[in-house]
Amino acid sequence: MSAKVIDGKAFAGKLRAKIASHVARLRDETGVVPGLAVVLVGEDAASQVYVRNKGIQTVAVGMASYEHKLPAEASESQLLALIADLNADRSVHGILVQLPLPAHIDAGAVINAIDPRKDVDGFHVTNVGLLATGQRSMVPCTPLGCLMMLRDHFGSLRGRTAVVVGRSNIVGKPMAQLLLRDDCSVTIVHRHSLGMAEICRRADILVTAVGQPEMFDASYVKPGAVVIDVGINRIERDGRSKLVGDVNFADVANIAGAITPVPGGVGPMTIACLLANTLTAYCRAHDLPEPDGLAV
Ligand SMILES: Nc1nc(=O)c2c([nH]1)NC[C@@H]1CN(c3ccc(C(=O)N[C@@H](CCC(=O)O)C(=O)O)cc3)C=[N+]21
């Protein structure tokens, strides 16, 4: 193995420490701390674990955490009423509705009911449009975390060839927008792309977000490329449950210049960026200067 392993867990720890020091200062200066509301509909086990982790980390940086749990049978109008309350609540600066939502609820309608200024996921159509046109917006947490790690690794991304695999609204599309904004030449490929490996092999920066365990081996990677593995896939191996990425780590680590591991790469950065976005939303709501390095 020759690649540098990009330690997302350590990076996220440093980011949270920076956020915590800003939150402490703001609390002393204003008496008000940033507040993050997380809404969970239904009992999905993975979502429950994830929401609990977010709550713990939110409190750990000194923010207020508000958890709202609705039963799986909750109606769309009940959820919309809760969002209206959270939009109006001045102690809430960020609102996250955990996805996926039960099938009887229109997720798009719910997301677009969130005040865009409190949309710390960056999924509201207003934020999507602001990002696409290069204006100040809330940026989706996973791509934001990837961008922070890439900027840290390269310094400048200008002129680099980036390939994003996956075209979802939560990762692929916003990731491509951010890379474009940092002056990369950006290609998005997806399940219908022809000659995917060949296109990927041109990338200086390869971002994989497809949800296919260990699909990307060394044949997709240019020697020295930086590989950001967004996939988090739970598989059974040797009779045990384990997390793997979209990338075959052992194989790709022999050829890449740098690579993010799973677990311990993009995942921890996603949660740290949720806190960063909440602090950004708070600063904007209170007309305070935004700390450097939190937003793009
Ligand atoms: N509105 C909304 N926003 C989200 O951002 C959102 C969501 N819904 N629904 C679910 C997905 C999933 N997601 C993860 C974030 C961090 C880890 C993470 O920290 N993973 C650890 C491993 C955790 C473990 O051991 O299970 C790691 O990669 O090291 C995982 C998954 C955010 N999501």
UniProtKB/TrEMBL annotation:
Keywords tagged on the record: Amino-acid biosynthesis, Histidine biosynthesis, Hydrolase, Methionine biosynthesis, Multifunctional enzyme, NADP, One-carbon metabolism, Oxidoreductase, Purine biosynthesis
Domain Tetrahydrofolate dehydrogenase/cyclohydrolase NAD(P)-binding per the UniProt entry, residue ranges: 140-284
Reactions catalysed: (6R)-5,10-methenyltetrahydrofolate + H2O = (6R)-10-formyltetrahydrofolate + H(+); (6R)-5,10-methylene-5,6,7,8-tetrahydrofolate + NADP(+) = (6R)-5,10-methenyltetrahydrofolate + NADPH
InterPro entries linked: Aminoacid_DH-like_N_sf (IPR046346), NAD(P)-bd_dom_sf (IPR036291), THF_DH/CycHdrlase (IPR000672), THF_DH/CycHdrlase_cat_dom (IPR020630), THF_DH/CycHdrlase_CS (IPR020867), THF_DH/CycHdrlase_NAD-bd_dom (IPR020631)
EC number: 1.5.1.5, 3.5.4.9
Pathway noted in the entry: One-carbon metabolism; tetrahydrofolate interconversion
Residues of the signal peptide: none
Pfam families, alphabetized: THF_DHG_CYH, THF_DHG_CYH_C
UniProt-listed SUPFAM superfamilies: Aminoacid dehydrogenase-like, N-terminal domain, NAD(P)-binding Rossmann-fold domains
Binding site for NADP(+): G166, R167, S168, I232
Residues of the Tetrahydrofolate dehydrogenase/cyclohydrolase catalytic domain: 6-121
UniProt superkingdom: Bacteria
Family membership noted in the UniProt record: Belongs to the tetrahydrofolate dehydrogenase/cyclohydrolase family.
Cited PANTHER family: C-1-TETRAHYDROFOLATE SYNTHASE, CYTOPLASMIC (PTHR48099:SF5), C-1-TETRAHYDROFOLATE SYNTHASE, CYTOPLASMIC-RELATED (PTHR48099)
Function: Catalyzes the oxidation of 5,10-methylenetetrahydrofolate to 5,10-methenyltetrahydrofolate and then the hydrolysis of 5,10-methenyltetrahydrofolate to 10-formyltetrahydrofolate.
Subunit-level organization: Homodimer.
Protein name stated in the entry: Bifunctional protein FolD
